Amino acid sequence: MLRRNPCLRLRWELLVTLAVTAMLHACASNRSTLPPPLQVPTSPREPVVDDYFGTKVVDPYRWMEDRDAPRFVDWLQRQDAYARAVLGAIPGRDRLLERLQAHSAGGSVVRGVRQAGGRVFYLKRNPGDDALKLYVLLTPEGPERRLVDPALAGGAMSIDYFRPSPDGRRVAYGLSEGGSEQSVLHILEVDGGEHAPETIDRTPYAEPSWRPDGTGFYYNRLAEHTEGMAEAEKYLHSRAWLHQVGTPPERDVPVLGTGVAGSPALQPVDSPYVQATAGSEHVLAMISHGADAAMSVFVARANPGAGYHWKKVADAADGVTAAALHGDELYLLTRKDAPRFKVLQVDANAPDLARARTVVPCSERVIQDIAVAADGLYLSELDGGLGRLRRYGFSTRTLTEISLPLEGAVRGPVTEPARAGALVGLQNWITPESWRYVDDSGQSVSTRIVAPWNVDTSPYLVEEVRARSWDGTLIPLSIVRRRDARLDASSPVWLTAYGAYGVSMTPSFSGVYGTSRLMPLVEDGGMYAVCHVRGGGEYGDAWRLAGAQENKPNSYKDLLACADHLIARGYTRPSALALEGASAGGIVVGMALTARPDLFKVVFSRVGDNNPLRLEQGADGPIVAAEFGSTRTQAGFRALYAIDPTQHVRAGTAYPAVMLTTGFNDARVPPWQPGKLAAHLQAATASGHPVILRVEFEGGHVASSGARSLAEHADMLAFFYAQLGRTDAQTGARD
């Protein structure tokens, strides 16, 4: 966590106070909702020239990559002070925050539901809570019990993950500080509430998997950090270990990884995991090779005392993205020769893909995930962007469609190998999430995991349309609006996209891209539009590949097509259109901004990948190279250069208003990525519209608290409203 000099902090708080006071005084005599201009912080240019296969590329802000250097920290503080002054002076910003707070008070948010020993575990943030807390339902009808409140650990702590033991008596969970996601693993006894004496550090992606008897678990642990280690080496050479509860971590046994006897050969970037399953004598070795979802899979008898004799099941070329054991039967979800995936079954005792049986063939549906229960293999699927649920019966060897009461997204299925049935979460763009239990007959009943939201969404509707992209491909576009919204090109529209790693933007009310965070805009007659660009997984692996590596420009061109469609159909106009992307979505919106600055009124890039040419220098660099390309090859350089927004900013261009965000503790996208784009745009723009960089010094890639998340969304809405020249009480938009 950043420890700032108190004198520096006081100095900038004083500057912000003076700037805000001056702006409020000016606004009192000026009816415009736009704050008066401020002094944009200076960004020193110290050009570094790289020669990539004969192409010289200039990077004037390479100095920012030393993220802990005092001058970069000072620069971030000045940028944040400027951003907060601009945002704080917008009339109506506080009222927007109050409206968002009122919406968040309408219901609880639930994440990470899991079943174990007949109990249900989940993370929940109730109205008024600042952080997700860990809860358990000991019985389906009984009251929930809080197990872990991260606030009690002191500081801005967050629960990053958790896994209950098969009998539901213990939970392993990761706790980190300040949004850093640098988890320390803890072990809790559920019934008594006591913690085991040991903790395990270097476990941000531990993925603990309990042994069937609940005495210990397998987990992934990063290599020890050495002095002078480059950021890009942070996640290399990790290992899978076996931990016995009650023993010091120093006695843990390495199971998979470089230098481990009997381990399959691994590359430095590989992340090994071991997966145990109750009711099976086997364990799986799942080896991730970076950003690509395809894994290498090995199987062995679970016999720690005698070592592990791994038998190869599949390598990365076999396209296996998920595996599940049911006794001696091993089920594999694969994309090989199946662009929308299929499910194979092999004998775990003698795995041979050449003799695998196809139990669920490839179809028009996209199979997203599989989960084993006592009665069958449950399949989560996408059918034209809508979630579906089917079950492959172990006894009948047939597929059964399971009817669900809501059209939208399906979360889960969450199963237990020893119990029949599954838990599924249901929501759509205008319906808050609920969780239902599906029994072995296919009937579903509501659960007490989350109470119904106190929100009336009847005034709203969802339109599902398609926009024709540059090459004729039809791009799905989801539009949320009031039923009585004006369709005369006067409505403000908030357009968002992601398009990477095969992630599908499924209908969501309370999620990261959910409608609830923009309800004031929709209430005021605006619209929320989600563009399902190529690079996502909405139509399977072919859709992902069409927006990856050298095909990545398709993603932002699809987004531009969706923007043009909204304008051509009379939903909005460029002077009322906002564009948003986050994380890898920063590439898409950054390139859309530089390609068509005339098309948008406001652009938001949240913790965005804004300098892809230098992605490999970050902690996630070796991992994301599989998705976007590597500068170590000529083809990879060309692919990255074509999607690097910092290399496409042009001096003297009239860019729209831009708000970038970053978290100082971001372990995925370092703050110099958004920082560089902010500096480029501030130096280049000729429009007079503000370009601001909002920094969370106690945050990371995701908000470390509910309050910080609401404040960020209030700032974004206020920034949009100010550029439209309106307050939150005014409906419609005007130039």
Q: Could you walk me through the main structural features you see in this protein, from its secondary elements to its overall organization?
A:
The protein is α+β, with helices and mostly antiparallel strands and 735 residues long. A hairpin with a 6-residue loop joins strand 8 and strand 9. Helix 1 (6-28) runs parallel beside helix 2 (70-88), helix 3 (93-104) packs across helix 11 and helix 6 (553-568) packs across helix 7 (585-595). The two termini are 43 Å apart. Among the domains are: 41-103 and 461-724, Rossmann fold; 380-452, no CATH class. It is built from eleven helices and 37 strands. An eight-stranded mixed β-sheet has the order 30-31-33-32-34-35-36-37, sandwiched between helices. A four-stranded antiparallel β-sheet has the order 3-4-5-6, with no helix packed on it.
Helix content: 10-25%
Number of strands: 37
Task: Identify the CATH homologous superfamily of the domain at 41-103 and 461-724.
Answer: Alpha/Beta hydrolase fold, catalytic domain
CATH architecture of the domain at 41-103 and 461-724: 3-Layer(aba) Sandwich
As residue ranges, the low-confidence spans are 1-36, 729-735
> What is the CA-CA span between the terminal residues?
43 Å
Strand content: 25-35%
Structural class computed from helices and strand pairing: alpha+beta
Shape: globular
Instruction: Calculate the mean pLDDT score and round it.
Output: 91
- Write the CATH fold name of the domain at 41-103 and 461-724: Rossmann fold
Domain Peptidase S9 prolyl oligopeptidase catalytic: 518-725
Domain Peptidase S9A N-terminal: 45-439
EC number: 3.4.21.26
Keywords: Hydrolase, Protease, Serine protease, Signal
